[in-house]
Amino acid sequence: MIVAKTSTPSSWIVHLSCVTTCSYVGCNPTIGDVVVDRYSIPKLCPREVKSGDHVRYHYNVTFQDGKTFDSSYERGAASVGQTGQGRLIAGIDKGIQGMCVNERRKVTVPPHLAYGSLGAGDVVPPDTTLVFDLMLLDMWNMADLVVTETLSTPLDCKRSVKRTDFVRYHFNGTLLDGTPFDSSYNKGQTHDSLVGEGWLIKGMDEGLLGMCVGETRHIIIPPFLAYGQKGSGKEIPPHATLVFDVLLVDLHNPKDDITVDNQVVPESCPRKSVAGDYIRYHYNGTFLNGLTFDTSYQRNNTYNTYIGMGYVIEGMDKGLQGVCIGERRRVILPPHMAYGEQGAGKDIPGSAVLVFDIHVVDFHNPKDTVEIQVTHKPEVCNVTSDVDDLIHYHYNCSLLDGTRLFSSSDDDNLQDTVLGADKVIDGLDESLRGMCVGERRTVIVPPHLGHGEKGATGVPGSAVLRFELELVDLQKGVPEGYLFVWVEDAPLELFQALDVNKNGEVPIEEFGAFIMLQVAEGKGRMKPGMDPEEIIADMFRNQDRNKDGVIVAEELKLKVEEDKERMHEEL
Fold first, then answer.
1. Nearest residue to 211 via CA among 290, 149, 146
2. What is the pTM of this model?
Protein backbone atom coordinates (compact mmCIF):
# COMPACT_ATOMS: atom_id res chain seq x y z
CA MET A 1 0.00 0.00 0.00
CA ILE A 2 1.41 3.34 -1.03
CA VAL A 3 0.20 6.57 0.45
CA ALA A 4 0.79 9.74 -1.54
CA LYS A 5 2.53 12.59 0.25
CA THR A 6 -0.29 15.12 0.31
CA SER A 7 -1.63 17.34 3.00
CA THR A 8 -4.93 15.46 2.99
CA PRO A 9 -4.72 11.85 4.22
CA SER A 10 -8.05 11.02 2.57
CA SER A 11 -6.30 11.11 -0.80
CA TRP A 12 -3.81 8.39 0.07
CA ILE A 13 -3.59 5.67 -2.60
CA VAL A 14 -2.50 2.05 -2.29
CA HIS A 15 -0.80 0.18 -5.18
CA LEU A 16 0.53 -3.31 -5.87
CA SER A 17 4.11 -4.15 -6.80
CA CYS A 18 5.58 -7.22 -8.49
CA VAL A 19 8.59 -7.26 -6.15
CA THR A 20 8.34 -10.29 -3.87
CA THR A 21 9.88 -9.69 -0.48
CA CYS A 22 9.52 -13.28 0.73
CA SER A 23 10.47 -16.51 -0.92
CA TYR A 24 7.10 -18.04 0.01
CA VAL A 25 3.54 -16.92 0.61
CA GLY A 26 2.84 -16.64 4.29
CA CYS A 27 6.06 -15.13 5.62
CA ASN A 28 5.96 -11.86 7.58
CA PRO A 29 8.86 -9.82 6.21
CA THR A 30 10.53 -6.76 7.62
CA ILE A 31 11.37 -4.45 4.75
CA GLY A 32 13.88 -1.95 5.98
CA ASP A 33 12.14 -0.49 9.03
CA VAL A 34 8.64 -1.47 7.73
CA VAL A 35 7.03 -4.31 9.67
CA VAL A 36 4.51 -6.50 7.76
CA ASP A 37 2.04 -8.82 9.47
CA ARG A 38 0.35 -11.09 6.87
CA TYR A 39 -2.49 -12.20 9.08
CA SER A 40 -4.87 -13.48 6.37
CA ILE A 41 -3.51 -15.07 3.22
CA PRO A 42 -5.66 -16.75 0.53
CA LYS A 43 -4.92 -20.37 -0.29
CA LEU A 44 -4.46 -19.52 -3.95
CA CYS A 45 -2.16 -16.70 -4.98
CA PRO A 46 -1.44 -16.88 -8.71
CA ARG A 47 0.15 -13.44 -8.71
CA GLU A 48 1.83 -11.08 -6.23
CA VAL A 49 2.28 -7.31 -6.37
CA LYS A 50 5.47 -6.09 -7.96
CA SER A 51 6.83 -2.65 -8.68
CA GLY A 52 4.93 -0.89 -11.45
CA ASP A 53 1.66 -2.74 -10.82
CA HIS A 54 -1.61 -0.91 -10.28
CA VAL A 55 -3.66 -1.91 -7.27
CA ARG A 56 -7.14 -1.43 -5.86
CA TYR A 57 -7.52 -1.95 -2.13
CA HIS A 58 -9.34 -1.08 1.07
CA TYR A 59 -7.52 0.22 4.15
CA ASN A 60 -7.85 1.46 7.72
CA VAL A 61 -5.05 3.73 9.11
CA THR A 62 -4.46 4.07 12.84
CA PHE A 63 -1.89 5.46 15.19
CA GLN A 64 -0.03 3.03 17.42
CA ASP A 65 -2.61 3.60 20.16
CA GLY A 66 -5.26 2.19 17.85
CA LYS A 67 -7.02 5.43 17.08
CA THR A 68 -8.30 5.50 13.48
CA PHE A 69 -7.81 8.65 11.47
CA ASP A 70 -8.66 7.48 7.96
CA SER A 71 -10.54 4.59 6.29
CA SER A 72 -11.54 3.77 2.69
CA TYR A 73 -14.40 1.70 4.09
CA GLU A 74 -15.93 4.79 5.68
CA ARG A 75 -15.68 6.68 2.38
CA GLY A 76 -17.34 3.77 0.58
CA ALA A 77 -14.75 3.53 -2.18
CA ALA A 78 -11.54 1.55 -2.50
CA SER A 79 -8.33 3.38 -3.30
CA VAL A 80 -6.45 2.91 -6.55
CA GLY A 81 -2.79 3.58 -7.34
CA GLN A 82 0.47 2.41 -8.84
CA THR A 83 3.47 1.04 -6.98
CA GLY A 84 7.11 1.87 -7.42
CA GLN A 85 6.64 5.34 -8.90
CA GLY A 86 7.67 7.42 -5.86
CA ARG A 87 4.27 8.98 -5.46
CA LEU A 88 3.50 7.19 -2.19
CA ILE A 89 5.13 7.24 1.16
CA ALA A 90 8.09 4.96 1.08
CA GLY A 91 6.90 2.65 3.83
CA ILE A 92 3.69 1.75 2.05
CA ASP A 93 5.45 1.39 -1.28
CA LYS A 94 7.66 -1.21 0.40
CA GLY A 95 5.00 -2.78 2.59
CA ILE A 96 2.60 -3.67 -0.22
CA GLN A 97 5.18 -5.63 -2.18
CA GLY A 98 4.27 -9.32 -2.61
CA MET A 99 0.58 -8.98 -1.64
CA CYS A 100 -2.02 -11.35 -3.10
CA VAL A 101 -5.58 -10.48 -4.04
CA ASN A 102 -7.81 -11.03 -0.99
CA GLU A 103 -4.80 -10.93 1.30
CA ARG A 104 -5.06 -8.90 4.49
CA ARG A 105 -1.92 -7.52 6.08
CA LYS A 106 -0.96 -5.01 8.75
CA VAL A 107 1.90 -2.70 7.77
CA THR A 108 3.65 -0.65 10.48
CA VAL A 109 5.47 2.32 9.00
CA PRO A 110 8.04 4.32 11.05
CA PRO A 111 7.97 8.14 10.80
CA HIS A 112 10.95 8.48 8.50
CA LEU A 113 9.16 6.24 5.93
CA ALA A 114 5.85 8.03 6.48
CA TYR A 115 5.44 11.80 7.06
CA GLY A 116 8.66 12.30 9.06
CA SER A 117 9.28 15.24 11.33
CA LEU A 118 6.78 17.44 9.53
CA GLY A 119 3.70 15.23 9.88
CA ALA A 120 0.63 15.92 7.75
CA GLY A 121 -1.30 18.99 8.78
CA ASP A 122 -3.45 18.67 11.85
CA VAL A 123 -4.16 15.00 11.22
CA VAL A 124 -0.73 13.33 11.53
CA PRO A 125 1.61 14.76 14.15
CA PRO A 126 5.36 14.94 13.43
CA ASP A 127 7.43 11.80 13.99
CA THR A 128 4.36 9.54 14.07
CA THR A 129 4.43 5.81 13.40
CA LEU A 130 1.42 4.72 11.30
CA VAL A 131 -0.32 1.33 11.18
CA PHE A 132 -2.08 0.42 7.92
CA ASP A 133 -4.58 -2.47 7.78
CA LEU A 134 -4.80 -3.38 4.09
CA MET A 135 -7.02 -5.68 2.01
CA LEU A 136 -6.00 -6.10 -1.61
CA LEU A 137 -8.96 -6.26 -4.03
CA ASP A 138 -7.33 -6.04 -7.44
CA MET A 139 -4.02 -5.74 -9.26
CA TRP A 140 -2.98 -5.24 -12.86
CA ASN A 141 -0.19 -3.92 -15.00
CA MET A 142 -0.47 -1.84 -18.15
CA ALA A 143 1.54 -4.54 -19.90
CA ASP A 144 -1.14 -7.12 -19.05
CA LEU A 145 -2.99 -8.94 -21.79
CA VAL A 146 -6.33 -10.70 -21.68
CA VAL A 147 -5.75 -14.06 -20.02
CA THR A 148 -7.79 -17.02 -21.24
CA GLU A 149 -7.88 -20.56 -19.93
CA THR A 150 -9.95 -23.27 -21.61
CA LEU A 151 -11.68 -25.30 -18.92
CA SER A 152 -13.44 -27.77 -21.23
CA THR A 153 -13.76 -28.17 -24.95
CA PRO A 154 -16.07 -30.30 -27.14
CA LEU A 155 -14.70 -33.32 -28.96
CA ASP A 156 -15.84 -31.96 -32.30
CA CYS A 157 -15.09 -28.33 -33.13
CA LYS A 158 -15.71 -27.54 -36.77
CA ARG A 159 -15.81 -23.80 -36.30
CA SER A 160 -14.49 -21.22 -33.83
CA VAL A 161 -15.27 -17.58 -33.14
CA LYS A 162 -13.82 -14.98 -35.50
CA ARG A 163 -14.29 -11.26 -35.74
CA THR A 164 -17.70 -10.20 -37.16
CA ASP A 165 -19.25 -13.44 -35.90
CA PHE A 166 -22.41 -13.29 -33.79
CA VAL A 167 -22.30 -15.30 -30.57
CA ARG A 168 -24.65 -16.35 -27.80
CA TYR A 169 -23.01 -17.27 -24.52
CA HIS A 170 -23.69 -17.79 -20.85
CA PHE A 171 -21.39 -16.26 -18.27
CA ASN A 172 -20.72 -15.69 -14.62
CA GLY A 173 -18.88 -12.44 -14.01
CA THR A 174 -16.87 -11.63 -10.87
CA LEU A 175 -14.32 -9.09 -9.78
CA LEU A 176 -10.79 -10.30 -9.18
CA ASP A 177 -11.52 -10.77 -5.48
CA GLY A 178 -14.41 -13.09 -6.34
CA THR A 179 -17.27 -10.63 -5.83
CA PRO A 180 -20.00 -11.48 -8.37
CA PHE A 181 -21.36 -8.60 -10.42
CA ASP A 182 -23.48 -10.26 -13.13
CA SER A 183 -24.65 -13.64 -14.46
CA SER A 184 -26.60 -14.57 -17.58
CA TYR A 185 -27.78 -17.70 -15.77
CA ASN A 186 -29.58 -15.57 -13.18
CA LYS A 187 -31.30 -13.71 -16.01
CA GLY A 188 -32.32 -16.95 -17.68
CA GLN A 189 -30.99 -15.92 -21.08
CA THR A 190 -27.75 -15.83 -22.98
CA HIS A 191 -25.78 -12.70 -23.76
CA ASP A 192 -25.93 -12.15 -27.53
CA SER A 193 -23.50 -9.98 -29.45
CA LEU A 194 -21.36 -9.39 -32.50
CA VAL A 195 -17.66 -9.94 -31.89
CA GLY A 196 -15.05 -7.36 -32.87
CA GLU A 197 -17.58 -4.70 -33.79
CA GLY A 198 -17.49 -2.65 -30.59
CA TRP A 199 -20.57 -4.20 -29.03
CA LEU A 200 -18.52 -5.71 -26.21
CA ILE A 201 -15.72 -4.46 -24.00
CA LYS A 202 -12.39 -4.89 -25.77
CA GLY A 203 -11.20 -7.64 -23.47
CA MET A 204 -14.29 -9.77 -24.07
CA ASP A 205 -13.95 -9.22 -27.81
CA GLU A 206 -10.46 -10.72 -27.52
CA GLY A 207 -11.35 -13.40 -24.99
CA LEU A 208 -14.07 -14.95 -27.13
CA LEU A 209 -11.92 -15.37 -30.23
CA GLY A 210 -11.19 -18.97 -31.09
CA MET A 211 -13.92 -20.43 -28.87
CA CYS A 212 -15.94 -23.45 -30.02
CA VAL A 213 -19.61 -24.02 -29.31
CA GLY A 214 -19.77 -26.00 -26.08
CA GLU A 215 -16.39 -24.74 -24.88
CA THR A 216 -16.06 -23.21 -21.40
CA ARG A 217 -13.37 -20.61 -20.89
CA HIS A 218 -12.00 -18.61 -17.96
CA ILE A 219 -11.26 -15.04 -19.09
CA ILE A 220 -9.44 -12.37 -17.04
CA ILE A 221 -9.69 -8.84 -18.40
CA PRO A 222 -7.57 -5.97 -17.03
CA PRO A 223 -9.46 -2.72 -16.26
CA PHE A 224 -8.10 -0.77 -19.25
CA LEU A 225 -9.66 -3.44 -21.54
CA ALA A 226 -12.88 -3.50 -19.51
CA TYR A 227 -14.71 -0.46 -18.06
CA GLY A 228 -11.57 1.49 -17.08
CA GLN A 229 -11.67 4.49 -14.80
CA LYS A 230 -15.45 4.90 -14.91
CA GLY A 231 -16.54 1.38 -14.04
CA SER A 232 -20.11 0.37 -14.87
CA GLY A 233 -23.07 1.08 -12.65
CA LYS A 234 -23.00 0.15 -8.99
CA GLU A 235 -21.71 -3.38 -9.52
CA ILE A 236 -18.42 -2.72 -11.33
CA PRO A 237 -16.22 -0.14 -9.61
CA PRO A 238 -13.64 1.97 -11.43
CA HIS A 239 -10.33 0.28 -12.24
CA ALA A 240 -11.76 -3.23 -11.86
CA THR A 241 -10.26 -6.37 -13.32
CA LEU A 242 -13.11 -8.58 -14.55
CA VAL A 243 -13.21 -12.37 -14.46
CA PHE A 244 -15.64 -14.26 -16.69
CA ASP A 245 -16.46 -17.94 -16.85
CA VAL A 246 -17.98 -18.28 -20.30
CA LEU A 247 -19.91 -21.10 -21.98
CA LEU A 248 -20.31 -20.57 -25.73
CA VAL A 249 -23.81 -21.66 -26.72
CA ASP A 250 -24.13 -20.52 -30.30
CA LEU A 251 -22.12 -19.09 -33.17
CA HIS A 252 -22.85 -17.81 -36.65
CA ASN A 253 -21.91 -15.08 -39.07
CA PRO A 254 -24.51 -12.70 -40.54
CA LYS A 255 -23.23 -13.71 -44.00
CA ASP A 256 -23.80 -17.44 -43.39
CA ASP A 257 -25.95 -19.53 -45.71
CA ILE A 258 -27.45 -22.86 -44.68
CA THR A 259 -25.05 -25.76 -44.28
CA VAL A 260 -25.93 -29.27 -45.42
CA ASP A 261 -23.90 -32.22 -44.18
CA ASN A 262 -24.16 -35.78 -42.84
CA GLN A 263 -26.01 -36.76 -45.99
CA VAL A 264 -27.07 -40.37 -46.48
CA VAL A 265 -28.50 -40.67 -49.98
CA PRO A 266 -30.22 -43.85 -51.18
CA GLU A 267 -28.60 -45.69 -54.09
CA SER A 268 -31.67 -45.18 -56.23
CA CYS A 269 -32.83 -41.58 -56.55
CA PRO A 270 -34.88 -41.19 -59.73
CA ARG A 271 -36.18 -37.80 -58.66
CA LYS A 272 -35.15 -34.92 -56.39
CA SER A 273 -37.47 -32.45 -54.73
CA VAL A 274 -38.02 -29.04 -56.30
CA ALA A 275 -39.91 -25.89 -55.36
CA GLY A 276 -43.64 -26.54 -55.44
CA ASP A 277 -43.36 -30.13 -54.22
CA TYR A 278 -45.23 -31.31 -51.14
CA ILE A 279 -42.94 -33.17 -48.75
CA ARG A 280 -43.36 -35.38 -45.69
CA TYR A 281 -40.36 -35.70 -43.40
CA HIS A 282 -39.31 -36.55 -39.88
CA TYR A 283 -36.89 -34.32 -38.01
CA ASN A 284 -35.00 -33.74 -34.80
CA GLY A 285 -34.44 -30.05 -34.08
CA THR A 286 -31.51 -29.07 -31.85
CA PHE A 287 -29.34 -26.08 -31.08
CA LEU A 288 -25.62 -26.07 -31.82
CA ASN A 289 -24.94 -27.27 -28.28
CA GLY A 290 -27.02 -30.40 -28.93
CA LEU A 291 -30.04 -29.42 -26.83
CA THR A 292 -33.27 -30.63 -28.47
CA PHE A 293 -36.07 -28.11 -28.90
CA ASP A 294 -38.48 -30.16 -31.04
CA THR A 295 -38.87 -33.53 -32.74
CA SER A 296 -41.52 -35.02 -35.01
CA TYR A 297 -40.67 -38.53 -33.79
CA GLN A 298 -42.11 -37.78 -30.36
CA ARG A 299 -45.42 -36.86 -31.96
CA ASN A 300 -45.22 -39.94 -34.21
CA ASN A 301 -46.22 -37.77 -37.16
CA THR A 302 -44.23 -36.44 -40.06
CA TYR A 303 -44.10 -32.74 -40.76
CA ASN A 304 -45.87 -32.08 -44.05
CA THR A 305 -45.48 -28.95 -46.16
CA TYR A 306 -44.98 -27.40 -49.55
CA ILE A 307 -41.40 -26.31 -50.20
CA GLY A 308 -40.03 -23.28 -51.98
CA MET A 309 -43.28 -21.40 -51.44
CA GLY A 310 -42.71 -19.71 -48.07
CA TYR A 311 -44.74 -22.11 -45.95
CA VAL A 312 -41.73 -22.85 -43.70
CA ILE A 313 -38.77 -20.80 -42.49
CA GLU A 314 -36.41 -19.73 -45.25
CA GLY A 315 -33.53 -22.02 -44.35
CA MET A 316 -35.71 -25.13 -44.20
CA ASP A 317 -37.43 -24.11 -47.42
CA LYS A 318 -34.02 -24.13 -49.07
CA GLY A 319 -32.61 -27.16 -47.24
CA LEU A 320 -35.47 -29.43 -48.32
CA GLN A 321 -34.96 -28.79 -52.02
CA GLY A 322 -32.83 -31.26 -53.93
CA VAL A 323 -33.48 -34.19 -51.57
CA CYS A 324 -34.21 -37.80 -52.52
CA ILE A 325 -36.97 -39.92 -51.05
CA GLY A 326 -35.40 -41.82 -48.15
CA GLU A 327 -32.51 -39.37 -47.83
CA ARG A 328 -31.18 -38.30 -44.44
CA ARG A 329 -29.37 -34.99 -44.07
CA ARG A 330 -28.41 -32.41 -41.48
CA VAL A 331 -29.36 -28.83 -42.25
CA ILE A 332 -27.84 -26.01 -40.16
CA LEU A 333 -29.78 -22.76 -40.31
CA PRO A 334 -28.33 -19.39 -39.28
CA PRO A 335 -30.87 -17.31 -37.35
CA HIS A 336 -31.47 -14.85 -40.20
CA MET A 337 -32.77 -17.86 -42.18
CA ALA A 338 -34.70 -19.26 -39.20
CA TYR A 339 -36.53 -17.30 -36.49
CA GLY A 340 -34.22 -14.29 -36.35
CA GLU A 341 -33.70 -12.03 -33.38
CA GLN A 342 -37.21 -12.65 -32.03
CA GLY A 343 -36.97 -16.43 -31.74
CA ALA A 344 -40.13 -18.54 -31.52
CA GLY A 345 -42.11 -18.97 -28.32
CA LYS A 346 -40.41 -20.23 -25.19
CA ASP A 347 -38.39 -22.96 -26.86
CA ILE A 348 -36.34 -21.08 -29.45
CA PRO A 349 -34.49 -18.00 -28.21
CA GLY A 350 -33.66 -15.04 -30.39
CA SER A 351 -30.63 -15.27 -32.71
CA ALA A 352 -30.44 -19.07 -32.34
CA VAL A 353 -28.74 -21.28 -34.92
CA LEU A 354 -30.95 -24.31 -35.56
CA VAL A 355 -29.83 -27.80 -36.51
CA PHE A 356 -32.31 -30.14 -38.20
CA ASP A 357 -31.57 -33.83 -38.74
CA ILE A 358 -34.20 -34.80 -41.29
CA HIS A 359 -35.39 -38.03 -42.88
CA VAL A 360 -37.37 -37.58 -46.09
CA VAL A 361 -40.30 -40.01 -46.10
CA ASP A 362 -41.79 -38.99 -49.44
CA PHE A 363 -42.68 -36.04 -51.64
CA HIS A 364 -44.89 -35.40 -54.62
CA ASN A 365 -46.13 -32.59 -56.79
CA PRO A 366 -49.82 -31.69 -57.07
CA LYS A 367 -49.45 -32.12 -60.83
CA ASP A 368 -48.16 -35.69 -60.49
CA THR A 369 -49.98 -38.52 -62.24
CA VAL A 370 -49.91 -42.21 -61.44
CA GLU A 371 -46.56 -43.83 -62.25
CA ILE A 372 -46.95 -47.32 -63.70
CA GLN A 373 -44.12 -49.79 -64.24
CA VAL A 374 -45.00 -53.12 -65.86
CA THR A 375 -42.84 -55.77 -64.22
CA HIS A 376 -44.36 -58.80 -66.03
CA LYS A 377 -46.66 -59.21 -69.00
CA PRO A 378 -47.86 -62.55 -70.41
CA GLU A 379 -46.95 -63.37 -74.00
CA VAL A 380 -50.61 -63.76 -75.01
CA CYS A 381 -52.85 -60.85 -74.10
CA ASN A 382 -56.05 -60.59 -76.16
CA VAL A 383 -58.22 -58.88 -73.56
CA THR A 384 -57.34 -56.04 -71.19
CA SER A 385 -59.21 -54.52 -68.28
CA ASP A 386 -61.31 -51.43 -68.75
CA VAL A 387 -64.02 -49.35 -67.15
CA ASP A 388 -67.05 -51.42 -65.99
CA ASP A 389 -65.03 -54.66 -65.92
CA LEU A 390 -65.10 -56.85 -62.85
CA ILE A 391 -61.56 -57.80 -61.92
CA HIS A 392 -59.88 -59.92 -59.25
CA TYR A 393 -56.36 -59.00 -58.24
CA HIS A 394 -53.62 -59.41 -55.65
CA TYR A 395 -51.87 -56.38 -54.17
CA ASN A 396 -49.27 -55.22 -51.66
CA CYS A 397 -49.49 -51.62 -50.46
CA SER A 398 -46.65 -49.74 -48.72
CA LEU A 399 -45.32 -46.25 -48.11
CA LEU A 400 -42.33 -45.10 -50.13
CA ASP A 401 -40.02 -45.67 -47.17
CA GLY A 402 -40.97 -49.36 -47.27
CA THR A 403 -43.48 -49.32 -44.41
CA ARG A 404 -45.98 -52.09 -45.19
CA LEU A 405 -49.62 -51.03 -44.92
CA PHE A 406 -51.91 -53.66 -46.44
CA SER A 407 -51.78 -56.82 -48.55
CA SER A 408 -54.36 -59.13 -50.11
CA SER A 409 -52.34 -61.98 -48.66
CA ASP A 410 -53.25 -60.78 -45.15
CA ASP A 411 -56.62 -62.55 -45.34
CA ASP A 412 -55.64 -64.84 -48.24
CA ASN A 413 -58.45 -63.43 -50.37
CA LEU A 414 -58.34 -61.91 -53.81
CA GLN A 415 -59.55 -58.35 -54.02
CA ASP A 416 -62.27 -57.56 -56.52
CA THR A 417 -63.69 -54.36 -57.90
CA VAL A 418 -65.64 -53.00 -60.82
CA LEU A 419 -63.42 -50.50 -62.57
CA GLY A 420 -64.82 -47.00 -62.80
CA ALA A 421 -67.43 -47.70 -60.14
CA ASP A 422 -65.69 -45.57 -57.47
CA LYS A 423 -64.99 -48.66 -55.36
CA VAL A 424 -61.26 -48.01 -54.87
CA ILE A 425 -59.07 -44.88 -54.74
CA ASP A 426 -58.77 -43.10 -58.08
CA GLY A 427 -55.08 -43.84 -58.54
CA LEU A 428 -55.54 -47.58 -57.99
CA ASP A 429 -58.59 -47.68 -60.27
CA GLU A 430 -56.55 -46.03 -63.01
CA SER A 431 -53.59 -48.36 -62.42
CA LEU A 432 -55.73 -51.49 -62.83
CA ARG A 433 -56.96 -50.52 -66.28
CA GLY A 434 -55.37 -51.86 -69.44
CA MET A 435 -54.03 -54.95 -67.67
CA CYS A 436 -53.90 -58.50 -68.98
CA VAL A 437 -54.71 -61.46 -66.78
CA GLY A 438 -51.39 -62.53 -65.29
CA GLU A 439 -49.81 -59.08 -65.70
CA ARG A 440 -47.91 -57.55 -62.77
CA ARG A 441 -47.27 -53.88 -62.13
CA THR A 442 -45.56 -51.60 -59.62
CA VAL A 443 -47.53 -48.40 -59.20
CA ILE A 444 -46.85 -45.09 -57.40
CA VAL A 445 -50.01 -43.19 -56.42
CA PRO A 446 -49.75 -39.53 -55.29
CA PRO A 447 -52.00 -38.57 -52.37
CA HIS A 448 -54.42 -36.46 -54.43
CA LEU A 449 -55.22 -39.71 -56.30
CA GLY A 450 -55.00 -41.74 -53.07
CA HIS A 451 -56.31 -40.94 -49.61
CA GLY A 452 -55.59 -37.21 -49.71
CA GLU A 453 -54.51 -34.91 -46.90
CA LYS A 454 -56.63 -36.67 -44.29
CA GLY A 455 -55.40 -40.19 -45.01
CA ALA A 456 -57.39 -43.23 -43.95
CA THR A 457 -57.26 -45.91 -41.29
CA GLY A 458 -53.65 -47.02 -41.27
CA VAL A 459 -52.67 -44.54 -43.98
CA PRO A 460 -51.02 -41.22 -42.99
CA GLY A 461 -52.33 -37.99 -44.45
CA SER A 462 -50.72 -36.84 -47.72
CA ALA A 463 -48.93 -40.18 -48.12
CA VAL A 464 -47.60 -41.34 -51.47
CA LEU A 465 -48.52 -45.03 -51.87
CA ARG A 466 -46.68 -47.84 -53.62
CA PHE A 467 -48.71 -50.79 -54.95
CA GLU A 468 -47.53 -54.13 -56.31
CA LEU A 469 -50.42 -55.46 -58.43
CA GLU A 470 -51.22 -58.74 -60.19
CA LEU A 471 -54.38 -59.20 -62.24
CA VAL A 472 -55.75 -62.70 -61.60
CA ASP A 473 -59.16 -62.67 -63.28
CA LEU A 474 -61.12 -60.42 -65.61
CA GLN A 475 -64.81 -60.35 -66.46
CA LYS A 476 -65.74 -57.82 -69.06
CA GLY A 477 -68.40 -55.46 -67.84
CA VAL A 478 -71.39 -53.56 -69.13
CA PRO A 479 -71.95 -49.79 -69.23
CA GLU A 480 -73.46 -48.06 -66.20
CA GLY A 481 -77.22 -48.53 -66.07
CA TYR A 482 -77.13 -51.79 -68.06
CA LEU A 483 -77.64 -55.32 -66.81
CA PHE A 484 -77.04 -57.03 -70.18
CA VAL A 485 -75.41 -55.97 -73.43
CA TRP A 486 -75.17 -57.59 -76.80
CA VAL A 487 -71.65 -58.48 -77.88
CA GLU A 488 -72.98 -59.11 -81.37
CA ASP A 489 -75.97 -57.51 -83.03
CA ALA A 490 -79.30 -58.40 -81.44
CA PRO A 491 -81.67 -60.60 -83.54
CA LEU A 492 -83.75 -58.56 -85.98
CA GLU A 493 -86.90 -60.22 -84.71
CA LEU A 494 -86.09 -60.32 -81.01
CA PHE A 495 -89.58 -61.24 -79.77
CA GLN A 496 -89.83 -64.17 -82.13
CA ALA A 497 -86.43 -65.38 -80.89
CA LEU A 498 -87.66 -65.13 -77.29
CA ASP A 499 -91.06 -66.77 -77.98
CA VAL A 500 -89.76 -70.28 -78.38
CA ASN A 501 -93.19 -72.03 -78.30
CA LYS A 502 -94.71 -69.34 -80.56
CA ASN A 503 -97.76 -68.66 -78.39
CA GLY A 504 -97.28 -64.87 -78.41
CA GLU A 505 -96.24 -64.76 -74.76
CA VAL A 506 -92.85 -65.06 -73.06
CA PRO A 507 -92.85 -66.13 -69.40
CA ILE A 508 -89.78 -65.61 -67.18
CA GLU A 509 -88.63 -69.21 -67.78
CA GLU A 510 -88.42 -68.69 -71.55
CA PHE A 511 -86.84 -65.24 -71.07
CA GLY A 512 -84.20 -66.55 -68.69
CA ALA A 513 -83.29 -69.53 -70.87
CA PHE A 514 -82.84 -67.24 -73.87
CA ILE A 515 -80.57 -64.79 -72.02
CA MET A 516 -78.40 -67.55 -70.57
CA LEU A 517 -78.04 -69.09 -74.06
CA GLN A 518 -76.81 -65.77 -75.48
CA VAL A 519 -74.22 -65.48 -72.71
CA ALA A 520 -73.11 -69.09 -73.18
CA GLU A 521 -72.66 -68.59 -76.93
CA GLY A 522 -70.76 -65.33 -76.38
CA LYS A 523 -73.39 -63.25 -78.12
CA GLY A 524 -74.30 -61.26 -75.02
CA ARG A 525 -72.84 -60.31 -71.60
CA MET A 526 -74.47 -59.80 -68.24
CA LYS A 527 -73.27 -57.34 -65.64
CA PRO A 528 -70.44 -59.08 -63.75
CA GLY A 529 -70.50 -59.44 -60.01
CA MET A 530 -74.28 -59.94 -59.76
CA ASP A 531 -76.33 -63.13 -59.42
CA PRO A 532 -77.51 -64.09 -62.96
CA GLU A 533 -80.96 -65.03 -61.66
CA GLU A 534 -81.32 -61.58 -60.06
CA ILE A 535 -80.23 -59.95 -63.31
CA ILE A 536 -82.77 -61.99 -65.32
CA ALA A 537 -85.54 -61.25 -62.82
CA ASP A 538 -84.76 -57.55 -62.90
CA MET A 539 -84.63 -57.48 -66.69
CA PHE A 540 -87.92 -59.40 -66.91
CA ARG A 541 -89.68 -56.98 -64.53
CA ASN A 542 -88.51 -54.06 -66.67
CA GLN A 543 -90.10 -55.63 -69.79
CA ASP A 544 -93.28 -56.95 -68.16
CA ARG A 545 -94.80 -53.52 -68.10
CA ASN A 546 -98.34 -54.50 -67.08
CA LYS A 547 -96.99 -56.91 -64.46
CA ASP A 548 -99.09 -59.89 -65.64
CA GLY A 549 -96.18 -62.36 -65.54
CA VAL A 550 -95.56 -62.56 -69.29
CA ILE A 551 -94.02 -60.34 -71.94
CA VAL A 552 -95.87 -59.69 -75.21
CA ALA A 553 -94.46 -58.11 -78.38
CA GLU A 554 -95.91 -54.68 -77.62
CA GLU A 555 -94.07 -54.61 -74.26
CA LEU A 556 -90.62 -55.63 -75.47
CA LYS A 557 -88.20 -52.80 -76.04
CA LEU A 558 -84.43 -52.65 -75.98
CA LYS A 559 -82.89 -50.26 -73.44
CA VAL A 560 -81.34 -48.30 -76.28
CA GLU A 561 -84.82 -47.65 -77.67
CA GLU A 562 -86.13 -46.72 -74.23
CA ASP A 563 -83.30 -44.23 -73.76
CA LYS A 564 -84.08 -42.65 -77.14
CA GLU A 565 -87.76 -42.33 -76.26
CA ARG A 566 -86.93 -40.79 -72.85
CA MET A 567 -84.56 -38.28 -74.43
CA HIS A 568 -87.24 -37.32 -77.01
CA GLU A 569 -89.80 -36.76 -74.25
CA GLU A 570 -87.37 -34.60 -72.28
CA LEU A 571 -86.74 -32.44 -75.36
1. 149
2. 0.76
